């Protein structure tokens, strides 16, 4: 899922592609590196007391709360508080955060017919915020909404995996039903898949498989702001132009029917503040509402980073660990068609200065691939000599530019680079401007609205040569990286969304390689194939992977239970609480 943790995840559309995912045991093993990222601060926290108001700072409002529209990691983290799924991940630090557990279902599902049919039994007694029961027909309706053509966001897995009707299904608003999702009774749901999937129970942990109550989504824009809750919190009404929102308790939620969500605070207030230095400074000062505050998606500001991590007291108020993501720039292959030009941009990029602007080596490892090193599909290669010369190779870049010019295919001497409208990110990207000037290329930074950013850069007509992006795998395999980012089936005409294929790559050989890897049943062989494709994509220079970032998220002295969850690359909202719930959040943060 898209990740913009320095400021996600954005819009993701549908694609016709096959996929294989890890079996449960393999997923636990390959996620071990990420799960072990949880820092010791979580263990050092004082005891959480029920109640009080937790304040969560975001760089921008979530793109979506409607579960069927959710694709971003941040949105999925928030959604888990209000929209339950058949399965989910444990809300515990360490390796446990990678473990799948039943949620709305009573178990992890019962596969049959060579893993092409999956059946789940629903817990009895789970209720919506209006007091009505959650039943099978609402799960079916939620899944069917993924097929509705009125949606231009969300993840594509329902369409990719579920067997379609004889006449292509266009969602429940057409008045028809999807034949491959059947309610045996009010508490039993059965899915029929296009092909075997031994771990479909991981797929149904995604927000897009949450139930939606028929009729509640009549106003689709309003439902995206305030969906009906089946979790421990409900969304308080807010105006469309609000700069924040609040979750309060869903009085019909029962802790005895939910073993995952801790639901410690009575209220969770989400506030938008993109001024990272001011937010970090406010948390260091630790006064008023900041004592009850945690930063969800933004790291400690670079100018405060060394102070925070080296101070024994301040460092105890930091949740940190590998995010499991890759931070990169996608090169628009529609605008930069010449391979030598793309390679020149890759060679000239100064990754050392970029990381230094972010705070130095403590912030993460320099990247050479799109599949992060915590996954078994990761392959070691370094085509652009990042690890031996992280300052880039200007001479090699200039040779490639000259070659392109001599062949009558000169490279652009001006580049337009898209990034979210965030001062901190702009400071990082400025290092790219400096590096490219040294090879005679002028860069214009195009700061786009943060809330619509991923939707904007998914339109092939956006006109930018490079775009700032990030990705967290939806599960622990290369199949959750390569296809969603590079499958040509995702590329759509201007005015439509091309999913997360921000390079707009539609290469027949890569498309075939993806299909071949998806069809590979031997998991170890499949890992190898994904790594080989990643290597080929690097040689094609369709992206510039920069960093495997580390999450370093600060919180106030009254916040407890903070750790980096492997699925979200951020603090797990379902685990957070307060030491003293009597401390109010009745003043504006000094960081605002």
TrEMBL record:
One cellular component (GO) term of this entry: periplasmic space
SUPFAM superfamilies attached to this UniProt entry: Periplasmic binding protein-like II
Pfam families: SBP_bac_5 (PF00496)
GO BP, sorted A to Z: peptide transport
InterPro entries listed in its UniProt record: Peptide/Ni-bd, SBP_5, SBP_5_dom, TAT_signal
Keyword Ligase: no
Cited Gene3D superfamilies: Dipeptide-binding Protein, Domain 3, Periplasmic binding protein-like II
PANTHER family given in the database record: ABC TRANSPORTER SUBSTRATE-BINDING PROTEIN, PERIPLASMIC BINDING COMPONENT OF ABC TRANSPORTER
Protein name: ABC transporter substrate-binding protein
Keyword annotations: Signal
GO molecular function, one term: peptide transmembrane transporter activity
Organism phylogeny: Bacteria, Bacillati, Actinomycetota, Actinomycetes, Micromonosporales
Residue span, Solute-binding protein family domain: 99-487
Position of the signal peptide: 1-37
């Amino acid at each position: 899922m898209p990740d913009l943790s320095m400021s996600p995840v954005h819009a993701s559309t549908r694609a016709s592609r096959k996929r294989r995912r890890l079996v449960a045991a393999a997923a636990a093993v390959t996620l071990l590196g990420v799960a072990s990222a949880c820092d010791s601060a979580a263990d050092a926290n004082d005891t959480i007391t029920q109640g009080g108001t937790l304040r969560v700072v975001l760089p921008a409002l979530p793109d979506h709360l409607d579960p069927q529209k959710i694709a971003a990691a941040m949105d999925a983290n928030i959604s888990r508080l209000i929209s339950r799924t058949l399965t989910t991940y444990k809300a515990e630090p360490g390796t446990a955060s990678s473990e799948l557990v039943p949620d709305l279902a009573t178990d992890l599902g019962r596969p049959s017919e060579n893993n092409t049919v999956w059946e789940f039994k629903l817990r009895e007694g789970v209720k919506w915020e209006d007091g009505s029961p959650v039943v099978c027909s609402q799960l079916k309706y939620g899944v069917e909404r993924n097929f509705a053509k009125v949606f231009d966001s969300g993840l594509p897995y329902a369409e990719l995996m579920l067997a379609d009707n004889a006449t292509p299904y266009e969602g429940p608003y057409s008045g028809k039903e999807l034949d491959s999702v059947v309610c045996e009774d009010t508490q039993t749901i059965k899915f029929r898949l296009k092909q075997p999937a031994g771990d479909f129970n991981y797929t149904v942990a995604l927000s897009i498989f949450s139930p939606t109550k028929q009729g509640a989504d009549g106003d689709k824009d309003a439902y995206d702001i305030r969906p009906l809750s089946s979790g421990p919190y409900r969304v308080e009404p807010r105006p469309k132009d609000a700069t924040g929102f609040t979750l309060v308790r869903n009085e019909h939620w029962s802790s005895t029917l939910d073993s995952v969500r801790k639901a410690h605070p009575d209220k969770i207030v989400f506030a938008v503040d993109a001024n990272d230095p001011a937010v970090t400074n406010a948390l260091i000062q630790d006064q008023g509402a900041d004592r009850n505050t945690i930063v969800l998606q933004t790291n400690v500001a670079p100018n405060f980073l060394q102070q925070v991590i080296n101070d024994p007291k301040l460092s105890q108020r930091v949740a940190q660990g590998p995010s499991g993501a890759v931070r990169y720039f996608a090169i628009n292959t529609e605008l930069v068609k010449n391979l030598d030009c793309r390679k020149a941009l890759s060679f000239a990029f100064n990754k050392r200065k970029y990381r230094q602007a972010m705070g130095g080596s403590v912030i993460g490892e320099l990247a050479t691939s799109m599949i992060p090193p915590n996954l078994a599909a990761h392959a070691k290669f370094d085509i652009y000599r990042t690890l031996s010369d992280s300052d880039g190779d200007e001479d090699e870049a200039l040779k490639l530019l000259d070659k392109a010019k001599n062949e009558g295919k000169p490279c652009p001497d001006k580049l337009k680079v898209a990034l979210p409208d965030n001062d901190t990110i702009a400071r990082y990207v400025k290092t790219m401007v400096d590096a490219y000037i040294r090879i005679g290329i002028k860069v214009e930074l195009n700061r786009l609205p943060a809330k619509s950013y991923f939707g904007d850069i998914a339109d092939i007509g956006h006109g930018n040569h490079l775009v700032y992006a990030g990705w967290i795998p939806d599960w622990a395999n290369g199949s959750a990286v390569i296809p969603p980012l590079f499958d040509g089936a995702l590329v759509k005409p201007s005015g439509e969304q091309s999913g997360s294929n921000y390079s707009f790559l539609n290469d027949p050989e890569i498309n075939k390689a993806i299909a071949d890897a998806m069809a590979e049943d031997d998991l170890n062989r499949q890992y190898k194939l994904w790594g080989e494709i990643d290597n080929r994509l690097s040689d094609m220079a369709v992206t510039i992977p920069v960093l495997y970032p580390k999450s370093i998220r600060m919180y106030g002295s009254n916040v407890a239970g903070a750790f980096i969850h492997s699925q979200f690359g951020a603090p797990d909202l379902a685990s957070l609480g307060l030491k003293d719930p009597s401390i109010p959040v009745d003043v504006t943060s000094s960081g605002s």
